[in-house]
Amino acid sequence: MHSLLSTVSGALRTIGEKVLAGDRLTTSEGLILFEQGSLPYLGALANHVRERMHGNKTYFNRNFHIEPTNVCVFTCAFCSYSRLYAHREEGWELSIEQMMDIIRSYDGKPVTEVHIVGGVHPKMNLAYFADLLRQIHAHRPDLHIKGFTAVELDYMFRKAKLTVEEGMTLLRDAGLQSLPGGGAEIFHPDIRAQICADKVDADGWLYIHETAHRLGMHTNATMLYGHIESYAHRIDHMLRLRELQDRTGGFNTFIPLKFRNKDNDMSHVSEVSVVEDMKAYAVARLFLDNFPHLKAYWPMLGRQKAQLSLSFGVNDLDGTIDDSTKIYSMAGAEEQKPAMSTTELVALIKQAGRAPVERDTLYHTVHDYSDVSLESLLADPTLN
After folding, report:
1. pLDDT, tens digit, for every residue of 344-381?
2. Which neighbouring-strand residues pair with 196?
3. pTM confidence score
4. Are 136 and 147 in contact (CB under 8 A)?
């Protein structure tokens, strides 16, 4: 790594020395990495940090998604998924019984997590979802329930006339165990006003996650990149997350999410290149020094780019994800039917030269596949 520093000078060399020493980067240094860092240089630094933190391990989990509805009261310009409540006949609305049927379809299968997110439907209120959580937990208490973006939660709590603390406590007691990171988009108000003006703002998003952390719940964080934001907006976004993580330590992972432009109000905005994708991951790994994990959501990137991201700071590829999530497939992601068996996901990681480790939601090891051959995996019917 020290020989790498001889290839650069000035600010980039100083930043590289700080990374090798384990020192925190400033916002101006993060911006320099975006603006001046070559992809090989960023990748080498990010991979160094990744291997310092996790060695060669690459995590995944066995999960499935439930999307209660794509009917939504909000109008986000980048969204290809939702249908306005006034036109809800164009969308879907699942009943609690239909969602429980999905839960029951996984009885006897070794999944560890259900991920519940969807549109903001005015009739699917706090009491409705608390009932769903209780039924899921009663039916399968070992299944970790990760659910509801801060956007969904903010609407639920306001409609129920409860404080964030009261609402989060109610859902936690009903069975909710952690929060996904959706709805963060870009925190800066100038960008938020243009792409998602009518939903919870940055302070509201951060406060909901801080409250969850105080209640003993872990959460994830995301950033929607590659649209109308600047590099400075990305650094501002990550700085706010880093500052909250300093206070609470409650974030598990950071997930950069690529803007996709199919069938939405921002279709005129071109998607960024794979070079920009990898740069986003690398700078995130270098700047977010207090986030333990960096995740690439493989259905969004596609399998080959997800493999590539493992050389740019990423140490988690999300889960097996049964063929249910439509948020990215409807926006034009490479994976139109996002499902991989455990064998396929382990093979994907091994082909990238990494060590696959199945985790639970909180990153406890379920099974280490590092020394398991692909032949023996293919012979195990429980993994396919």
Report:
1. 889 999 999 999 999 999 999 999 999 887 777 767 75
2. none
3. 0.91
4. no
* Residue among 315, 294, 214, 298 nearest 252 (CA): 294
C-alpha distances in Å from residue 53, one per residue of 16, 290, 357: 17, 11, 15
> Model confidence over 225-263: pLDDT tens digits?
999 999 999 999 999 999 999 999 999 999 999 988 777
CA 125 to chain centre: 24
The DSSP line for 310-362 is TTTT--EEEE---TT--TTGGGT-S-SS----HHHHHHHHHHTT-EEEEE-TT
Q: What is the CA radius of gyration of the chain?
A: 20
DSSP state of 95: -
Name the burial class of residue 289, with classes exposed (0-12), middle (13-18) and buried (19+) by CB atoms within 10 angstroms of its CB. Answer: middle
Measuring CA to CA, how many Å separate 312 from each of 46, 107, 307?
A: 5, 37, 10
181 CB-near residues (< 8 Å, 6+ apart):
149, 219, 220, 221, 222, 253, 254, 255
- The residue type at 186: I
